[in-house]
Amino acid sequence: MLTIRNLSKTYPNGVEALKSVSLDIETGIFGLLGPNGAGKSTLMKTIATLQEPSHGQVSFDNKDILKNPNVVRSCLGYLPQEFGVYPKISAYELLNHIAILKGVLNDAARKEQVNALLQQTNLYDVRKKSVSTYSGGMKQRFGIAQALLGNPNLIIVDEPTAGLDPEERNRFHNLFSEIGENIIVILSTHIVDDVSQLCPNMAILVDGEVCVNGRPSSLIDKLNGNIWRKVVDKDQVEQYKAKFNVISTRFIVGETQLTINSDIQPELGFEPVQPDLEDVYFSTLSKKIKTN
Ligand code: ADP
Ligand code: MG
C-alpha cells in the first residue's frame, strides 16, 4: 500500500505543481488522469524519490520513503515521460546492463528475463539494433521493458501510451493488465481510454489538486441521469455555453454535438445518454475551470 499525505511542491520559479495531494494506492493499476500541466509528472518523480516535495509524506508499506528512499528504489520500476538520450548500444545489451544495475546477477536468469521482456514488448526481432535508431513507439516499448526488469513490486509509468499507435496501445493494455494483478502500478495519462480499460482505481488531477478519486464505475454512476446530448448549429455553440454547463463539444462530419451536465433536461431536443468515463473527466475539468 502506498500512502500519500498532504504532498505539495512549489518549484523555485513559484509554480505550485502539487497542492496538498493525499491518496491511498492499493495493489492493482491506479490511473492518474489529468491534462498537461496538472502535476502528474511531478507526483510520479516524487514517488520515485527523484525529487523532493516542499511538504508532505509518502509511505510504502508503512515506511516513509522520503526519509528512506532505498525502501522504494530497490523495488521500483520507473518509466519517465522524457527519456533523454540513449547510448548507441543494442536493445539487448542495454537491457542486460540495466538488469545488472537492478541486481539481476545470475547470468542465465538475466538472459531469460531480458529475452522474455523483448518478446512481450515486441522488440525481439530488433533486439540487436541500437535503441537510438528506434522510432518513438519502439523507444516507448523499450522504456516499458526496462521498467519491468528485476520484477519490481512498484511500477510507475508516466504517460506510457502517449507515443503508441492503436495496435501498440492495445498490446500495452494486455501486458499491463497481467502485471497489475499482484503489485502496485501507477499509470499517469491524459488518455481516458487507458484508465477505463485498465484501472480499477483512479484519481483526476487538475492544477495540482486531486479533484476526483475512486473506482471508475462508481464515478460514472454518480453522473447517471445528468448527461444530455444534442446536435446543434455551429453558430449556436457559444449561446449554449453561456446558458448551460457544456462539458464537451465534438465536431462530427460537419455537425456539432454538445454534451451537457444537468439535473434536468436542459431544453427540448436534448437526449439523455449513459455516462462514461470521458463524461466524468470533462465534467471534472469544466467544474474546475468554473471555480477558478
Ligand atoms: P504534467 O505531467 O501533468 O503535465 P508536470 O508535473 O510536468 O505536469 O508540471 C506541473 C506544473 O509544474 C506545470 O505548470 C509545469 O510547467 C511546472 N513544472 C514542472 N517541472 C518544473 C520545473 N522543473 N521547474 C519549474 N516548473 C516546473
Ligand atoms: Mg507529465
Could you explain how this protein is built, in words?
The chain has helices at residues 40-47, 70-73, 91-101, 107-120, 136-148, 166-179, 192-198, 216-221, 237-243, 277-291, and strands at residues 2-10, 16-25, 28-33, 55-60, 63-64, 76-79, 154-158, 184-189, 201-206, 209-214, 227-232, 246-252, 255-261, 271-272. With 292 residues, the protein is α/β, with parallel strands linked by helices. A hairpin with a 2-residue loop joins β4 and β5 (63-64). The longest helix has 15 residues, at 277-291. It is globular, with a radius of gyration of 21 Å. It starts with a strand and ends with a helix. The model has no long low-confidence stretch (mean pLDDT 93). Bound molecules: adenosine-5'-diphosphate and magnesium ion. Magnesium ion (MG) is lined by residues 40-41, 81, 158-159. Residues 40-41, 81, 158-159 line the site of magnesium ion.
Q: Mind sketching the topology for me?
A:
Elements: E1 2-10, E2 16-25, E3 28-33, H1 40-47, E4 55-60, E5 63-64, H2 70-73, E6 76-79, H3 91-101, H4 107-120, H5 136-148, E7 154-158, H6 166-179, E8 184-189, H7 192-198, E9 201-206, E10 209-214, H8 216-221, E11 227-232, H9 237-243, E12 246-252, E13 255-261, E14 271-272, H10 277-291
Parallel strand pairs: 3-8, 3-9, 6-7, 7-8
Antiparallel strand pairs: 1-2, 1-4, 4-5, 9-10, 11-13, 11-14, 12-13
Helix pairs in contact: 3-4, 4-5
The structure holds adenosine-5'-diphosphate and magnesium ion.
